[in-house]
Specification:
29% helix; three-stranded antiparallel beta sheet; paralog of FGE (formylglycine-generating enzyme); 458 residues; alpha+beta
Length: 458
């Protein structure tokens, strides 16, 4: 998730929607893109308001990156791929380019990812000044594009669209990485403390209905992006998939339900675990979700961007690895959904009911207390949902040549697909076909769990 997706020549594959050529972009679209550029770039900087320079340097593990690096890398993208020919633009020093290149190896040798937290220079003030220079040059470029109708102009607009989606990805990554870093501090500092403190729940919690099930008869379904609108190249091409009858749970698994798995010895019983997952669990002494904290003998708290918070039984369990999610499914007599099953369900689910980054709640929402309707909840937003599908190319997928084409194709191994978005995903940065992906041991991201099961054919 570190770099933009691939594109043929300069036009991202995702912008070549069916029946829509590059010349279809209008002046109005260019104006809209300019407005989105401003809000997206400002949104990234808003995420660091109130943080100290020391916070921006935190890198808790090799898989994460400091907040300062995310701000620099997204700026590097626009300068590298859109402003090289602008003689009026004041570029960054050449020595910065390897520091903030993620893994575009065809255009240079990037600084090792594990060493990004050692980059105390350039300082944050220099990076923010660089962002402003790039923003100004990009504003001039986009203003020029508003009166252009050439194919070259459409290519530029396509690349800007790609850059904005790329920056939205890094907004989410910035907060996930910061949560990991802050969680390793014994003082447990909060990114955004809760006003008035936390209220510990007293008395019995409200009743939550048992899992309901959304049923599908199976058959031939369409998977992948089709029609108009932006999409990344790994969402295409659209193709047909045959599904056996299945059912999916109408909500995410809760903290309380996951605690029952733990109390029943789920972490100690190898029967529920893939062998690689069992070795990972034993080797790292994993006994609970990533940010759970003990309250005496019990797991009564969890570390969040709001600091240490009471663990709410009805809240969706989060920060699980694929290994843990898969083991829970086997313990529960179910399984993880295939991504084709998830996508089929998602087309009938509301897209804007979950928590998104723009709502600034910094936590996923719980399911409706009494659902009972088997209508799927928490499909979009709240938490990324692990699927049982390995991250592989769709039939007919071809990675395109060029530096920007280094993203998806070369990572289609040893990872699993997640779907749906999370409470840290910017609103609008989602769709039923969006494919996120992480290695099966990863769990610092906002990942959760929905069950599926096989059904009898009728």
């Amino acid at each position: 998730m570190d770099v933009p997706r691939s594109l043929p020549e300069l036009i991202p594959l995702g912008l070549q929607a069916a029946g829509e050529g590059p010349m279809a972009r209008s002046c109005q679209e260019a104006i809209s893109l300019r407005q989105r550029f401003r809000s997206t770039r400002q949104g990234s900087e808003d995420l660091i308001c109130g943080l100290e320079p020391e916070d921006l340097m935190v890198q808790g593990m090799a898989d994460a990156s400091p907040a300062k690096w995310h701000l620099a890398h997204t700026t590097w993208f626009f300068e590298q791929f859109l402003l090289q020919a602008d003689s009026g633009h004041q570029a960054a020093p050449a020595g910065w380019y390897p520091l903030f290149n993620s893994y575009y190896r065809t255009i240079g040798s990037p600084h090792p990812r594990s060493g990004r937290g050692l980059l105390s220079r350039p300082a944050i003030g220099e990076i923010l000044a660089w962002r402003q220079r790039v923003n100004g040059s990009m504003e001039r470029l986009l203003e020029q594009m508003e009166s252009e109708t050439s194919s070259e102009a459409q290519q530029v607009l396509g690349l800007v669209e790609l850059g904005l989606n790329h920056e939205q990805q890094h907004q989410e990554l910035l907060l996930m990485d910061l949560l990991d870093g802050l969680s390793r501090n014994p003082l447990e500092p909060a990114y955004a403390p809760v006003v008035g403190g936390h209220q510990v729940q007293t008395g019995d919690p409200p009743l939550l209905a048992p899992l309901g099930w959304w049923h599908h008869p199976g058959g031939l379904v369409e998977l992948g992006h089709r029609g108009h609108g932006f999409h990344f190249d790994n969402e295409a091409p659209a193709h047909q998939v045959w599904l056996q009858p299945f059912a999916m749970a109408d909500r995410l698994i809760t903290n309380g339900e996951y605690a029952a798995f733990m109390a029943d010895g789920g972490y100690q019983d190898s029967r529920f675990w893939m062998d690689e997952g069992w070795h990972w669990r034993c080797g790292h002494q994993i006994t609970a979700p990533r940010y759970w904290r003990r309250d005496g003998e019990d797991w009564g708290w969890e570390f969040t961007l709001e600091g240490r918070c009471p663990l709410k039984p009805h809240g969706p369990v989060r920060h699980l690895s694929w290994f843990e999610a898969d083991a829970y499914g086997r313990w529960a007599g179910a399984r993880l959904p295939l991504e084709a099953e998830w996508e089929t369900m998602a087309y009938g689910a509301p897209c804007h009911t979950g928590q998104w980054l723009d709502r600034q709640q910094l936590k996923p929402s719980a399911a409706a207390v009494l659902s009972g309707s088997a209508a799927p909840q928490q499909v979009f937003g709240d938490l990324w949902e692990w699927t049982g599908s390995p991250y592989r190319p769709y039939p007919g997928f071809q990675a395109t040549p060029g530096a920007v084409g280094e993203y998806n194709g070369k990572f289609m191994s040893s990872q699993f697909v997640l779907r749906g978005g999370s409470f840290l995903t910017p609103l609008g940065h989602h769709r039923p076909t969006y494919r996120n992906f992480f290695p099966p041991h990863s769990r610092w991201m906002a990942s959760g769990l929905r069950l599926a099961r096989d059904e009898e054919a009728h």
